[in-house]
Design brief:
The chain is of the alpha/beta class. The protein folds into three domains: about 1-85, no CATH class; about 125-340, 2-enoyl-CoA Hydratase, Chain A, domain 1, CATH 3.90.226.10; about 365-525 and about 570-595, Alpha-Beta Complex (2-enoyl-CoA Hydratase, Chain A, domain 1). The protein has 23 helices and 22 strands. The relative contact order is 0.05.
Length: about 625
């Protein structure tokens, strides 16, 4: 019978045609003239049950022939009518006025600014909240600044000026359910003075942060703000409870509850600090940017001509500054990334990270030894090793474009969230540069704050040397990585995969840094430096004194092998420097057993206010 029905997915709400299916209250279906009333009823019932929506089936002249309701809806409506009838209830004029005011507020800023959003490739803020949560569970401060702009307010005379619309003062706050988790939500409305922040919106933001401290629930900041509203700065800029308190509260929340920020537009000046204070920041290609000043201000101060994307777009912050952890293709992808990310995180520092059902790895652990080249200076991709250790599909890398010599990622081992810090021999031989040390330090610090165990996969020639990295602060950034590793109190496992030269073994949580174990594969070597560098440093003059080239080559090879025996992990295991040499094919099972055993380990640190390194 369905071949005689023309289905038109027409969305209505209060008689108004809408383009967004999330707002649909009913779907209208038109059928051909040949269809009978019985067929119309069958179509309505079947589609209502399948789609979970109210369905109206009409004939060619738009006469409604049949209505289908989702299972249970008819009973609910009847029960509701009965209750209203019992009370003799009909909405009063006062309630109708309130509902009209709420609808007006939820329409956002001036219509001309709403119309521009499509050209900018982004959603209206309330549609964005529908995408993320299906709408907020509740909203706070919807009527913020109502007296200053709404024509129905006693404080406003005459007709409303469209450009003066300030619904919710341009900032939405409330509670929502995200991936079955309760979260606090803040979202800027870009249609209200470019999402700028002023007194009432600031108060809402601060209240949200303070409540997050009390509830111990994560915070999502959906940022799209041009910064503080300059022409209204009195009363919120420098006040004790003004915009500056944002960053004080960010600091208090840091390590207490996860803070995740997604950028949907150019966030300038004060608005750019929320993403960098957050634990994790997601930018969206083609729309996100953040900078301490706008291109126009940069031109005025320095004379530099630059556009917003070059100044602070996703490419800049994902690969050069390290301020962006993830870059999304579009709004849907941004939500997907955050949904993955939050699955590794607890609600607060008081809780354990959520475990899931374990899965076997993508590739068999049996192939681990063949994955690791025998020659210490031959490159390979550490992701190939991770694919043989971690649960399939669980590796979630952060900061992939920044400091690529170190991989920082979440993964699961038999369902247990673990933070991975792994040298990447495929990038600059896995040497540690300032950027990669900075990235690793921040990641370790965050994992420790949220009780996520750490796994170090060590294969590095150590910290990079040279005038360039000295100017870039290799000592300063290396210090931070070593400090974060030293201070971490979560269970730590160090695996010497291949080479562990110089201070690289310190930064990668070697034996001196309190890991629950330091284990090695048979390919491992631990030493002050590699054989070639060591021979050159110690024996260069003696070798140069040998006149016969063949004799010199033979002697050099002999010295290299003697040195290699000295740094081989078998010697280290013999001297109990490391805990165990593990058959590569058993590495995953070994790690699972050790993480299970040390799950409740307690570590004491000296009593002090805090360290000074960070």
């Amino acid at each position: 019978m369905f071949d005689r029905a023309t289905i038109e997915m027409t969305d209505y709400e209060d008689g108004k045609l809408l383009g967004n299916r999330r707002h649909r209250e009913r779907m209208q279906i038109r059928i051909g003239a040949e269809a009978s009333e019985e067929e119309a009823n069958a179509i309505a019932r079947a589609l209502a049950e399948h789609l979970g929506e109210k369905i109206e089936v009409s004939g060619a002249d738009d006469t409604v022939l049949a209505t289908g309701r989702p299972p249970g809806e008819g009973e609910r409506e009847a029960a509701g009518r009965d209750r209203e009838s019992d009370r003799g209830y009909e909405p009063t004029e006062r309630e109708k006025r309130l509902r009209a005011e709420i609808a007006d507020i939820e329409a956002g800023g001036p219509e001309k600014y709403r119309d521009r959003l499509a050209d900018q490739g982004k959603l209206f803020v309330r549609d964005r909240l529908d995408l993320w949560f299906g709408g907020l569970d509740f909203e706070d401060g919807r009527f913020a600044n109502f007296d200053a702009w709404h024509p129905d307010s006693p404080g406003v005379d005459g007709e409303e000026d469209g450009d003066d619309r300030l619904p919710a003062d341009g900032l939405l706050t409330g509670g929502a359910t995200f991936e079955d988790r309760s979260v606090h939500v803040m979202a800027n409305d870009f249609t209200v003075k470019a999402g700028s922040m002023a007194k009432r919106g600031v108060e809402k933001f601060l209240r949200l942060q303070q409540r997050a401290l009390q509830t111990g629930q994560p915070v999502l900041y959906l940022m799209d703000s041009s910064g503080g509203r300059i022409d209204e700065q009195t009363g919120f800029f420098a006040n004790r409870e003004g915009i500056g308190k944002y960053y004080y509260n960010h600091s208090m929340l840091s390590g207490r509850v996860p803070q995740i920020c997604v950028l949907y537009g150019p966030c300038i000046a004060g608005a750019a600090y929320t993403p960098v204070f957050a634990d994790f920041t997601v930018m969206v290609e083609g729309m996100s940017a953040m900078a301490i000043a706008s291109p126009r201000m940069v031109r005025m101060v320095t004379g530099e001509e630059i556009d917003m994307d070059e100044l602070g777009g996703p490419a800049v912050h994902a690969s050069e500054s390290g301020s962006a952890d993830l870059v999304a293709r579009d709004e849907d992808h941004a939500r997907e990334l955050v949904a993955q990310l939050i699955s590794y995180l607890p609600d607060s520092a008081d809780e354990r990270p959520p475990r899931t059902e374990g899965r076997p790895p993508k590739r068999s652990p049996v192939g681990i030894d063949a994955t690791v080249p025998e020659r210490p200076n031959k490159g390979y991709d550490m992701h190939d090793l991770l694919d043989r250790i971690a649960d399939q599909g669980s590796v979630f890398e952060l900061g992939a474009e920044y400091g690529g010599e170190i991989i920082t990622a979440f993964c699961r081992l038999d369902g247990r969230p673990v933070g991975v810090v792994a040298n990447q021999p495929a990038t600059r031989a896995g040497a540690i540069f300032p950027d990669s040390a900075d990235k690793a330090a921040s990641f370790v610090w965050t994992c420790d704050a949220y009780d996520i165990p750490l796994l170090y996969l060590c294969d590095t020639p150590g910290f990079m040397a040279g005038s360039g990295v000295e100017r870039e602060g290799i000592l300063e950034q290396g210090k931070k990585m070593i400090y974060a590793t030293s201070e971490a109190t979560v269970p730590k496992q160090c695996v010497v995969v291949r080479k562990a030269y110089g201070a690289g073994i310190y930064a990668m949580s070697g034996p001196a840094y309190g890991p629950e174990s330091t284990i090695a594969l048979p390919s491992g070597e631990i030493g002050i430096m590699g054989p070639e560098a060591a021979i050159n440093a110690v024996y260069a003059n003696r070798l140069a004194a040998i006149d016969d080239p063949d004799e010199r080559t033979e002697r050099e090879a002999q010295l290299r092998e003697e040195y290699r025996e000295d740094i081989d992990v078998h010697r280290m295991a013999s001297e109990v420097v490391i805990d165990e040499i593990v058959p590569p094919g058993e590495l995953r099972e070994e790690l699972l057993a050790r993480y299970d055993f040390y799950e409740g380990v307690e570590k004491q640190r000296p009593e002090k206010k805090h360290g000074t390194v960070l």
